[in-house]
Amino acid sequence: MNAFPRLKAYFHIAIALIVIGYPMYLWALWDPMDYGFTALRFGGDFFAYYEAAVLALRGYVTLVMDFAEFRLTALEYAPGAHPFYEWVMSPGLLLFLLPLASLPFMLAYGLVAGVGVAALVWCCRGEYRSFDTLDFVCLAPATLLCVLYGQPVLFVAALLCLTLRRLEVKPVLAGLMLGLSVVEPVVFVFGVLALLASRNMIALSAAVCSSAGVVFLSTVLFGAESWYLYWDNAVRIQFAALLSAPSDVLAMSLSVSGALVAANLNAESVMLVQALVTLLCAFATLWLFWKPRDPEARNLCFAVLAVLASPFAQVWDLVVVVPLLYYYAIKHEVFAPSDFDSSILEPICFTMLYLLPFAAIALTSHFIPVAPLVLLVALLAVLPRLLQPVSDQRDTSNRDAGLAA
């Protein structure tokens, strides 16, 4: 059964907004020579990663970890191309970026973008539905922004999707892939919490071994001082950058802290509220995995919680939700329910989640930050399926299958 006939209406509207409406909106409301919307924007963020890899290959790892000096060095090579260079790269991430330093910039950028999108599509191969998969995944606003900005979070999204999908059937493989996501600390920490709550010691052991291998190799290559500098500076530098960020950068934030900074709250209030939100998300993750629940609903909620918990989440980070939303929509026929009298609330909520990266930029720039609210609404939309016993869901699925037959 094609699970996306109702999606076509939403999807065509979304594509019209993405391909036609949104560029017109930018052209009308922003100076085309302003930050973020010139030709220099393509791969602008990737330039920071590429420059870090080049410097690390030449032996200047301490310069990369000294984020203030690294920003000045990068701006010398690309003046005006990227005024916001406070991307914090751990030695673990630098380990994976290092091979790119041997390639020309455009080739490295194209390789990361192309392989990243291919990995995202490949992790959805279990429910491949002709061009529906390519449309839904490749044209997702979060995916497009990752390609435009040159963000390697595409690989983290693929790793997370494969980890959650293989957790019960191949725990060793799932754990190994989760360990590789140590380059994204929030995703890795929440993944470890999920494994602890599910009492999956095999996957947890594999994740610990895999992450330890990444840390060990990066320490051998870059020295223990690189990790010391990273942990000494990372959170402080990122919070300082967020608190002093201009409005066009805050418009791309998905986090609660970004919304509060945009609302002009003081630094102490921002840190306190974000800490409480992160703590609540951690407890929600433990609750999600404590007992068996609908796997697609659980996995989707986990990805949304990981984004909501991060104080530095940006619009492209929502790509971690895209493949899991695809699987959820396939299983539960969100956009093509068997009963066409069913509520339309759920499709609307997930369409909002799907379009959130672009909507967040527009609404935060001119009205109020809405991203945390949309993420919360998406969690509430999934909650009824999480509360339903797994046995009842299986009975319902079998009955629907019988009726379809």
Automatic annotation (TrEMBL):
The record's subcellular locations are: Cell membrane
Please give the organism: Pseudovibrio exalbescens
Q: How does it sit in the membrane?
A: Multi-pass membrane protein
Report the GO terms under cellular component.
Answer: plasma membrane
- The residues that cross the membrane are 9-28, 107-124, 136-160, 172-196, 203-231, 237-263, 270-290, 302-328, 340-361, 367-387
Q: Which domain of life is it from?
A: Bacteria
Q: Which UniProt keywords apply?
A: Cell membrane, Membrane, Transferase, Transmembrane, Transmembrane helix
Q: What is this protein called?
A: Uncharacterized protein
Which Pfam families does this entry report, sorted A to Z? GT87
Organism classification: Bacteria, Pseudomonadati, Pseudomonadota, Alphaproteobacteria, Hyphomicrobiales
Family per record: Belongs to the glycosyltransferase 87 family.
InterPro entries (UniProt xref): GT87 (IPR018584)
Named from the GO MF annotations, one term is: hexosyltransferase activity
